[in-house]
């Protein structure tokens, strides 16, 4: 990742940069092919991707971090050894990222302002973290509230990529009772294209994939109803889970160390949120394709969905009620029985007094 | 409200409200029936109420030959959908987990594809009984609005469950939430309609048998 403004590199196209780094044309095409397949494009697109990427100019990227834990940046920067994906990421001109940049204080803020001016209308804005609306003082950078910085920087952005569940849907800061009044980028900005890349953290390849798409086509990929690129979030974890045959057969791990767990059976009963979660983990996997959480024996938490933190307990199966229904049922039953007995007693006394008040009619009465 | 919030609501407060109405309603209905009381029978008992009552619970559940011949369709379709509902409701692993969470114990499940097929058969049987109800002149005449309402709230959980399982139309959290909501609708309507027969059927059959038993005649 380059933070500086090395002019000679700045003017090179991506193709030139890759060649100067000793990447052969062959491995570059291989990368293009992998990208095409990852993004579910036809092989006919490979030369187009190659051509577009070769001649792409470095886009300026401004990265703003608000109420976040830096996990998203960690995910991205630690993900790969020197692969071409990381070179793509290297290639962008990351003009502002307060965790990664060497400059600080006024120097850093000046870099942001300069990048905004030079590339007005063209730069990409990446945001991680949510924005506190409760009180501007909850989170500030260089004395500027998150809200002001976001609104100011968004003005000249060509598109915004919201990275991580906090920026996309509010995430953990937004969890009940949301003390800071945290909101997502999409709730504040309505007039710019926003690509949501949720996950806690998101899969690095998904971030680079979205960047590649932007570099190749200059447009944003097709999004689903909550702003996620369909190519990565089009299928649920459950639909692509390799443990699915066990789910279908009704074979479940009951605890984390029983026989079922050792045999790799389905984790539904341990609270797996795979059936309601859309993400690429089951196919793309983590740590350079090593595995994904379910593969290491832990149920999916549903981290790429809005409000996943308040989804009713990570270890509670999806079909279980989230409130204490047993208690509710007992109290209701007790109440209903008490009411029933009271009503019954009332009816009985009514009946008794009615019997007592009953006057027999005699023949004489009728003859009156 | 996001999809997951909707799902959390139906799994939490929504379910709670439904269970309160269901339990209170069922108990009040039972209280109503039991507190009615029975007038003291002054005639001398000619046989046992209890044994005749219990026997009738079983015998009336098995159709005799003439009844079967006269209403074959009603009986076959009726049995299919009743058994189908039992299988899908009580033998599907996620459902058992829900029961276990509420009542404290569970039981073994059967493979999902069998549940899936049973659900389809049950839905078809329910559609068939509706078609029969609407095409048979006498049945149609006897049907009330309640009959159609009860049919609807019974088939809805099956259809929404099937759709949620196969994720047709929209995304999984919404589909699951709609399925749970349809079950909550069933729970809320249950005590105030003829759906109560799931609980009272044994009681009324016993009573039929008991009357005959007291008189010393075969029920
Ligand atoms: S482990 Fe989770 S995602 Fe995989 S089949 Fe089971 S419930 Fe579905
Ligand atoms: S498996 Fe589920 S919780 Fe884990 S990273 Fe993937 S989507 Fe998030």
List keywords for this structure.
heterodimer, A: 368 residues, alpha/beta, Rossmann fold, Cytochrome-c3 Hydrogenase, Chain A, domain 2, 5-stranded parallel β-sheet, two-stranded antiparallel sheet, 18 helices, 9 strands, 43% helix, disordered N terminus, B: 219 residues, mainly alpha, Fumarate Reductase Cytochrome B subunit, 11 helices, 77% helix, globular, binds iron/sulfur cluster
In a nutshell, what does this entry contain?
The complex is a heterodimer of chains A (368) and B (219). Chain A is α/β, with parallel strands linked by helices and 368 residues long.
> Share of helix among residues of chain B?
over 70%
The protein's oligomeric status is heterodimer
Share in helix of chain A = 40-55%
Helix and strand sequence of chain A = HHHHEHHEHEEEEHEHEHEHHHHHHHH
Poorly predicted segments of chain B: none
Radius of gyration of chain B: 20 Å
> What is the CATH architecture term of chain B?
Up-down Bundle
User: What's the total helix number of chain B?
Assistant: 11
| End-to-end gap of chain B | 57 Å
- Number of self-contained structural domains of chain B: 1
**What portion of the residues of chain B fall into strands of 2 or more residues?**
under 5%
Secondary structural class of chain A? alpha/beta
Main pleated sheet of chain B: none
């Amino acid at each position: 990742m380059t933070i500086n403004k090395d002019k000679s590199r700045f003017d090179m196209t991506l193709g030139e940069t890759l060649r100067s780094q000793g990447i052969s044309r062959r491995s570059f095409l291989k990368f293009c092919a992998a990208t095409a397949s990852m993004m579910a494009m036809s092989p006919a697109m490979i030369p187009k991707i190659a051509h577009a990427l070769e001649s792409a100019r470095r886009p300026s990227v401004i990265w703003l971090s608000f109420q976040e834990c830096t996990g998203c940046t960690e995910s991205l920067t630690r993900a790969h050894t020197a692969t071409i994906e990381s070179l793509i990421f290297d290639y962008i001109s990351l003009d502002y990222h307060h965790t990664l940049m060497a400059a600080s204080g006024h120097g850093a803020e000046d870099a942001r302002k300069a990048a905004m001016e030079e590339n007005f209308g063209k730069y990409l804005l990446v945001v991680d973290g949510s924005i506190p609306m409760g009180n501007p003082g909850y989170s500030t950078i260089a004395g500027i509230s998150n809200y002001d910085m976001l609104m100011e920087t968004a003005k000249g952005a060509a598109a915004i990529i919201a990275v991580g569940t906090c920026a996309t849907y509010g995430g953990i800061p937004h969890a009940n009772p949301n003390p800071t009044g945290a909101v997502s980028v999409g709730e504040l900005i309505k007039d710019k294209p926003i690509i949501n890349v949720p996950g806690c953290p998101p899969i690095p390849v998904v971030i680079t994939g979205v960047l590649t798409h932007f570099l190749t086509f200059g447009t944003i990929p097709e999004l689903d109803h909550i702003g996620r690129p369909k190519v990565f979030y089009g299928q649920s974890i459950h639909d692509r889970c390799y443990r699915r045959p066990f789910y279908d057969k009704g074979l479940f791990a009951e605890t984390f160390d029983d026989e079922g767990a050792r045999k790799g059976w389905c984790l539904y009963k341990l609270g797996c949120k795979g059936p309601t979660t859309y993400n690429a983990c089951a196919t793309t996997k983590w740590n350079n394709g090593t595995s994904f959480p379910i593969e290491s024996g832990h149920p999916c938490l549903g981290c790429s969905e809005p409000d996943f933190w308040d989804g009713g307990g990570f270890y509670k199966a999806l079909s279980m009620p989230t409130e204490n229904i047993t208690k509710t049922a007992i109290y209701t039953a007790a109440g209903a029985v008490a009411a029933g007995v009271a009503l019954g007693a009332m009816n009985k006394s009514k009946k008794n007094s009615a019997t007592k008040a009953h006057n027999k009619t005699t023949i004489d009465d009728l003859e009156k | 409200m996001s999809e997951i919030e909707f799902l959390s609501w139906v799994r939490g407060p929504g379910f709670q409200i439904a269970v309160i109405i269901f339990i209170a309603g069922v108990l009040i209905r039972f209280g109503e029936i039991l507190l009615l009381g029975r007038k003291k029978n002054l005639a001398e008992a000619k046989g046992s109420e209890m044994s005749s009552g219990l026997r009738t619970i079983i015998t009336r559940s098995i159709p005799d030959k003439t009844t079967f011949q006269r209403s074959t369709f009603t009986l076959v379709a009726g049995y299919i959908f009743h058994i189908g509902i039992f299988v899908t409701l009580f033998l599907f692993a996620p459902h058992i987990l829900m029961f276990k969470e509420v009542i404290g114990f569970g039981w073994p499940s059967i493979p999902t594809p069998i549940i899936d097929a049973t659900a389809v058969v049950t839905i078809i049987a329910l559609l068939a009984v509706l078609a029969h109800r609407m095409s048979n002149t006498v049945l149609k005449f006897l049907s009330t609005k309640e009959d159609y309402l009860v049919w609807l709230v019974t088939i809805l959980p099956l259809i929404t469950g099937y759709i949620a399982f196969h994720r047709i139309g929209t995304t999984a959290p919404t589909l699951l939430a709609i399925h749970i909501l349809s079950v909550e609708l069933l729970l809320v309507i249950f005590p105030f309609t003829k759906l109560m027969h799931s609980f009272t059927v044994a009681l009324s059959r016993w009573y039929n048998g008991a009357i005959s038993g007291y008189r010393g005649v075969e029920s």
